[in-house]
Design a protein that fits this description.
The chain has helices spanning 9-28, 63-73, 83-86, 93-103; strands spanning 32-38, 44-50, 55-60, 76-78. The radius of gyration is 17 Å and the shape is globular. A four-stranded mixed sheet has the order 3-2-1-4, covered by helices on one side. The chain has 110 residues and is an alpha+beta fold. It is built from four helices and four strands.
Length: 110
């Protein structure tokens, strides 16, 4: 007897919703690449980098859902956020001030 796999309708809807959001990001930024990072019990983080250097992220309830959403969206998926992939991210004054603020004891008010 063949083994059948149950499809979780709620999970499939979440995959579709995330894939749509990834596709919208990709369209808005001239294409995109992504990487899925495990967050533990919280789920998984999908980091997106647009061709224009803009970055964003989404959180999925599980690593499996995140991987399926990235696959369904059709973007290039990276195994890790390595130097070559990370170098595509363009940061601005806001990101640098936030990072610097964290290093020196908190955000600065401009």
């Amino acid at each position: 007897m063949a083994e059948t796999q149950q499809v979780d309708p709620k999970g499939e809807r979440k995959v579709a919703r995330l894939a749509t959001q990834i596709g919208s990001f990709s369209k808005a930024h001239g294409g995109a690449e992504g990487q899925v990072a495990y967050l533990g019990e919280r789920g998984a983080r999908i980091v997106l980098v647009g061709e224009d250097g803009t970055w964003g992220d989404l959180v999925a309830p599980s690593y499996e859902i995140a991987e399926k959403a990235v696959e369904k969206s059709g973007i290039t998926a990276h195994e890790s956020f390595d130097g070559e992939f990370a170098a595509k991210v363009k940061t601005g004054r806001y990101e640098w001030s936030r990072m610097a603020g964290i290093q020196v004891g908190g955000p600065k008010n401009d």
